[in-house]
Amino acid sequence: MRRSIKVAGVLGLMTVAGVVVPTIAAAIAKQRAVIVDDPEAPEIALSTIFDGVELENRSTEFRGGTTVCWYGAQRLDLRGATLAPEGATLKARCVFGGLQVLVPETWRVQVRAIPVFGGVADESSGPDGDGPLLSIEAVCVFGGVSIDVRDEDAWEVARR
């Protein structure tokens, strides 16, 4: 009987620590985040921790950047941007959060993802061939990334 009480106590403590520690870490990371959200910037750096942001990028040579969605959400609209001739790489990290990326129909998109109880929905319809390429490298932990050419709710895309 005592052993089961000890096990239950340890499991309860681990559960509380599993919720509290990531929340504290996210709050500390939010203080240190450097944001580059200029709509004309060729490279972006977005961080939404316990927050949300929408960015419409219109860069004439978009090269990519980084996004962090930690208990937050982002909507990145690239339909007004032009890819750099060498292409672009967007690194996305979603932990209990989500990222929606809107791209022009003419862009080629390649996604490499590491999903851990999360995922990626790629609904882009770019052409095959040799044009510039947007490469998205995503790590999704209890979160997700949605790539689309239409301005739709990410949940509707995920249900298809």
Brief sketch in words of this structure:
The chain is of the alpha/beta class. 23% of the residues lie in helices and 40% in strands.
Spell out the blueprint of helices and strands:
Layout: H1 2-32, E1 43-49, E2 52-56, E3 64-70, E4 73-77, E5 88-95, E6 98-102, E7 108-116, E8 119-122, E9 133-141, E10 144-148, H2 154-159
Based on CA atoms alone, the radius of gyration comes out at: 18 Å
Determine the number of helices (DSSP H or I, runs of at least 4 residues): 2
What share of the residues lie within helices?
Answer: 10-25%
Strand order of the largest sheet: 1-3-5-9-7
Distance between the termini: 49 Å
- Spans of at least 5 consecutive residues whose pLDDT stays below 50 are none
| Strand runs, count | 10
Strand content: 35-45%
Question: Helix-strand pattern, N to C?
Answer: HEEEEEEEEEEH
Major β-sheet, in short? 5 strands, parallel
How does the helix and strand content classify structurally? alpha/beta
Describe, in plain words, how this protein is organized in 3D.
This protein has 160 residues and is an alpha/beta fold. It folds into 2 domains: 1-32; 35-159, no CATH class. The chain is 23% helix and 40% strand. It has 2 helices and 10 strands. It has helices at 2-32, 154-159; strands at residues 43-49, 52-56, 64-70, 73-77, 88-95, 98-102, 108-116, 119-122, 133-141, 144-148. The protein has a 5-stranded parallel β-sheet, covered by helices on one side. The mean pLDDT is 82.
